[in-house]
């Protein structure tokens, strides 16, 4: 049985106070969430300490949005594994398209960050996905396979989550058809040695399309941006039918 993981990626949204306010509203809304669904909130670094305290003893797990590959050093503005684990971070998003696009993240650095996350006992959520241009040129399959081949060198597939996030579907309201997302996730799964790696879909996931997405057999969860910022909306997502 593959695990179902419903994760919110808050990106660069919410101060510490706003993060705590979200949890106070969100917690009661997920009291009756079906068993076996892992709920994760990936917050800005500045919210992690307060989140860890307020989430203690709850069924919500904590995630970060980046990790450096070295354990310490002169890397201004970066964050090391033990800084995250000391706070109680369980998951870390790696290789998000926004980091690949704006911050020079390459498959090589993605691979190094994945190794660091696993070395520190956290579960990385590896993001892969194609651009609109690549999709239109029918390169989706090649792009994804190429990313996976480079990103997953020497990575332990027993402690890994993958998120398929087509770049053209992120923040656009232009969701990938659930059947198509299922097809690409099937292709991703064929590249893996461990068939039990949870593979999420991400890109304009909303309360009104979650049921259809989660009804697909290959899709093991979602990575949600915009719709995870409101407690009501993210609660409706994690409480899908
Ligand atoms: O990038 C995403 C999650 O990592 C998706 O963002 P949206 O849900 O806002 O499209």
From TrEMBL:
Keywords: Cytoplasm, Gluconeogenesis, Glycolysis, Isomerase. It comes from the Bacteria. Pathway: Carbohydrate degradation; glycolysis; D-glyceraldehyde 3-phosphate from glycerone phosphate: step 1/1; Carbohydrate biosynthesis; gluconeogenesis. It is an enzyme of class 5 (isomerase). One of its GO terms (cellular component) is cytosol. Pfam families: TIM. It catalyses: D-glyceraldehyde 3-phosphate = dihydroxyacetone phosphate. InterPro entries: Aldolase_TIM, TIM_sf, TrioseP_Isoase_bac/euk, Triosephosphate_isomerase, Triosephosphate_isomerase_AS. The active site is at residues 96, 165. CDD domains: TIM. Substrate binds at residues 9-11, 171, 204, 225-226. One of its GO terms (biological process) is glyceraldehyde-3-phosphate biosynthetic process. Its EC number is 5.3.1.1. It is found in: Cytoplasm. Involved in the gluconeogenesis. Catalyzes stereospecifically the conversion of dihydroxyacetone phosphate (DHAP) to D-glyceraldehyde-3-phosphate (G3P). Belongs to the triosephosphate isomerase family. This is Triosephosphate isomerase. It comes from Stanieria cyanosphaera (strain ATCC 29371 / PCC 7437).
